[in-house]
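Lab notebook page, bench 4
Experiment: in silico fold of construct C2
Operator: M.H.
Input chain length: 318 residues
Purpose: comparison with the prior construct
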Amino acid sequence: MEGDTTLRITRRGWGGLAGAGLLLLVGCGTAVGPGGARATSKGAEGASFANPQLVVDVAWLQQHAKDPNVRLVDARPAAEYEKGHIPGAVSLPVADTFDPGQQKNYPDTKEKLEALFAGKGIGNATRVVTYDNGRETPAARLFWTLEYIGHTNAAVLDGGLKAWQAQSGAITAEVPAVEPAQFTSKIDPAKLPTKEQCELAITDKSKVILDARSPEEFRGEDVRAKFGGRIPGSVNVDWRENFAADASLKDASTLKTMYESKGVTKDKEVISLCQTGQRSSVSYWTLRLLGYPKVGNYAGSWVEWGNDPGTKKVQGDA
């Protein structure tokens, strides 16, 4: 779940491609990428993710975890990592990527992020696979951060640690030794929309604001800032709706239909948000998998918008 320390007043309960080559689809379940790497595409009736290299399954990880160019990253809090993690994984709590000078979960500076990732053995060409416990936000948030700083070879483990353990994957407390790498970032500002850009998007039909919070927060019944409600014109797809009951992602066809039914279509620029930009990272990752060409994550989210008396807000049913 998304962690934050903002004011909570509850009125009605808590409610390019990987490497240098093109991917070749194999059947409707897997995709073969550069070097023979396979990634889950979660197809249904022939449909598959447009960017299947952005997610891997347990079978792929079991086969490639020890590849020299693969870095497995545990995005959970350090205390959880210490209790047990996937062998070979390095600990990089997603909170370590936040700018401590801001209370809105914005990413840290270019220089600090470069040093952080390089220290974990992540270079510009490293294939990064992130994970959390499954049906959580840390792995997707770390994925978004990597794309924000220009790393285009990252993926999330489908189902996270839960899926790994369900397939008899080993757990260890051993911390691997890693050699620092060289990492040079290239910030992509389009991945990080601002409050001002959200304000402009309200009346821009070529853009859509996607709110990943709960329906209760969206309607203004569950208030976690000075003001409750939503941005005018925004649409609500709860981040949890991206997952099946087993914590894996739903299939591509189901997800495509879900988003398009809310007006979140590929011809529009999508700005995702939640409370602190963590739950909306799941939305960002899912839309990237589906092949949306223009999608960003508003890291300031409702903790910024909802605490600003000057921003526009509406409440009640859409």
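Observations: Residues 1-41 have pLDDT under 50 and may be disordered. Residues 193-305 form a domain with the Oxidized Rhodanese; domain 1 fold (CATH 3.40.250.10).
Next step: discuss at group meeting.
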